[in-house]
């Protein structure tokens, strides 16, 4: 323990460690070039380990994509993904026939539940200019009672995400984008219905925090039992509860005590993840997260038998029309667009 308020400080790698009820978080930050006719990079792919390209080369990665960067069809069971796109776009397709394109501040909250396949591709829409992409994907666990919930996804459009703004005593601004949880009277939109976050008593918070250079802010408190972590992913340095912290570090905090954050000489960007722990056994194997090893074995068996509904798309790296815009088409046929 660093002091009475900070329990741990850790450098951030590609996959960020999280606390229960979260499983992990990944920060994708890729400076993609202009796109080609197939929505892939208009650049040579020579020297890349296509299908497993996780090493940043020329400032970007193909991940599991071979033509288009991203993650072609793969299965999940037993947890949720919360995908927060700061810049760029994601094309969603799944085994229930749902699809969508979201980005530029949009959030997709997807409950894998009993099981589905989906693809998450990063279409390089612009052929005349670069296609930068920055996003977080947060894996949020489901309690045992919800592991077999009906698969579902919900779009939280950028226009519907509230912003809490305040100024410190020197007039410096602090802005908090509330994806889950609340600050005072400012409350985030509802998450997916079977989520651990759907119960306000679980105090699940997912906040994007921007602090102006030289600003100071006191984090609002939560219940003693809540696990709380801050991820300082862009900026120079901050002082938190009296401890100097460099950029690209995580800080685990006691949630029931007010914590003062003093920012340095550059704007600081932080992600907060907090929530009541589920306090159940977690057994993860690849894309499945259950409570016991036999449940993992059953997940693999069920997937081999059913393919979680099969794959209704022509491509495992399915992308949508260049001019599709931001839209969501759900498994029940309902559609939204922005």
UniProtKB/TrEMBL annotation:
<feature type="domain" description="Pirin N-terminal">
    <location>
        <begin position="64"/>
        <end position="140"/>
    </location>
</feature>
<feature type="domain" description="Pirin C-terminal">
    <location>
        <begin position="209"/>
        <end position="309"/>
    </location>
</feature>
<dbReference type="InterPro" id="IPR014710">
    <property type="entry name" value="RmlC-like_jellyroll"/>
</dbReference>
<feature type="binding site">
    <location>
        <position position="120"/>
    </location>
    <ligand>
        <name>Fe cation</name>
    </ligand>
</feature>
<feature type="binding site">
    <location>
        <position position="76"/>
    </location>
    <ligand>
        <name>Fe cation</name>
    </ligand>
</feature>
<keyword id="KW-0408">Iron</keyword>
<dbReference type="GO" id="GO:0046872">
    <property type="term" value="F:metal ion binding"/>
</dbReference>
<feature type="binding site">
    <location>
        <position position="118"/>
    </location>
    <ligand>
        <name>Fe cation</name>
    </ligand>
</feature>
<comment type="similarity">
    <text>Belongs to the pirin family.</text>
</comment>
<keyword id="KW-0479">Metal-binding</keyword>
<feature type="binding site">
    <location>
        <position position="74"/>
    </location>
    <ligand>
        <name>Fe cation</name>
    </ligand>
</feature>
<dbReference type="InterPro" id="IPR012093">
    <property type="entry name" value="Pirin"/>
</dbReference>
<dbReference type="InterPro" id="IPR011051">
    <property type="entry name" value="RmlC_Cupin_sf"/>
</dbReference>
<dbReference type="InterPro" id="IPR003829">
    <property type="entry name" value="Pirin_N_dom"/>
</dbReference>
<dbReference type="Pfam" id="PF02678">
    <property type="entry name" value="Pirin"/>
</dbReference>
<protein>
    <recommendedName>
        <fullName>Pirin</fullName>
    </recommendedName>
</protein>
<dbReference type="InterPro" id="IPR008778">
    <property type="entry name" value="Pirin_C_dom"/>
</dbReference>
<dbReference type="Pfam" id="PF05726">
    <property type="entry name" value="Pirin_C"/>
</dbReference>
